[in-house]
């Protein structure tokens, strides 16, 4: 059963915040913002640490935040190159008599059933 146009599905709606809750939420946001520079510095240190297990994750996080999730980086000069083509050929053993055609033993005969 669809909702009627202009009528809310949740009549009571979201409960309003008390002034204390609003103030607490604002303090929380300020605290997060004040820790941002320190957190970013820590992530950069992890990204630069050659022995850190989380180095790849830290670098991926920084690139995602700086350039977006679908960023693609090409080495200099790669923009103008032709695309790489990969050709897959089946493996074939070397045959002694390469000229011999196996499918033409009896070319003129019809198959009988």
Provide an overview of this structure:
The protein is mainly alpha-helical. It contains two helices and no strands. Helix 1 packs across helix 2. The two termini are 66 Å apart. The model has no long low-confidence stretch (mean pLDDT 80).
Throw out a few tags for this protein.
113 residues; 2 helices; mainly alpha
Strand-helix topology:
Elements: H1 19-48, H2 55-67
Helix pairs in contact: 1-2
Mean pLDDT score, rounded? 80
| Tally of separate helices | 2
Task: Give the N-terminus to C-terminus distance in angstroms.
Answer: 66 Å
Please summarize the sheet with the most strands: none
The structure class reads mainly alpha
DSSP, total strands = 0
The helix-strand sequence is HH
Approximately how much helix is present in the residues? 25-40%
Q: Which band does the percent of strand residues land in?
A: under 5%
**Coarse shape:** flat
What would you report as the Rg, rounded to the nearest angstrom?
A: 34 Å
Low-confidence stretches: none
Summarize the structure.
The protein has 113 residues and is mainly α. The protein has two helices and no strands.
